[in-house]
Amino acid sequence: MIVLGSTSEVAQAFVEKALQEGEKFEKIYLFTSNKETTERFARHIDVKFLQQSEIIELDLTKEIDYNAFENINSTVLFCAIGYLGEGTEEGLYDNKNTQKIIDVNYSKLVPVINYFAHKFENRRSGTIIGLSSVAGDRGRQSNFIYGSAKAAFTAYLSGLRNYLFDKKVHVITIKPGFMATKMTEGLPLNPKLTATPKQAADCIYKAFRKQKNTAYVLPIWGIIMMIIRNIPEFIFKKLKL
Description:
Layout: E1 2-4, H1 9-20, E2 28-32, H2 35-49, E3 53-57, E4 76-79, H3 89-92, H4 95-107, H5 109-123, E5 127-131, H6 144-164, E6 170-175, E7 178-179, E8 194-195, H7 197-210, E9 214-216, H8 219-229, H9 233-236
Parallel strand pairs: 1-2, 1-4, 2-3, 4-5, 5-6, 6-9, 7-8
Helix pairs in contact: 1-7, 4-6
């Protein structure tokens, strides 16, 4: 299995869930921009599950050497890479902040997934799981730069799913709502609408086994976002969301 964003609590919870359920992987490739944190997780799954892994450095803010990925082969790719950035008014007009949000969540991420999607296509098998966001369902003033990048990522996953369908490769789009992770630490999240990494991992694994196309981590978010998507624009533009 290839794990993009392996320092993510959700990614690590999904790896553990899959191994607990008896999934067998010759090797798990842990892509990370934080080697020290990932090494601790690699040791953990080695001790607990006797699972072999390999750590591969990946920083989407730097030039990527695709030659380093040439010998990596897998049947599952799990992508949990994401960057919320600064959502305040100051952050909105900070072009470095804006560029990093777009790069990490979409423009620099898509070529990496494409690289492995091509390998899956040539082998005519595999599953790609991408974590997008409910923020991509409709642009809202509180996080629309992040939301626009996630909207693009959702559209990319949808098109990739359509393209790879007859190549026997399945693509799953996961749309978490609020999640209790390092990325959202300090934000005033409603506990009834917030999932733990373990809850997210359970949902994602179920979607993986059932080969779903899209899934919200907490079902309530599907209802919330359906309502938000259907608010008429002349009303929606006046709301504080």
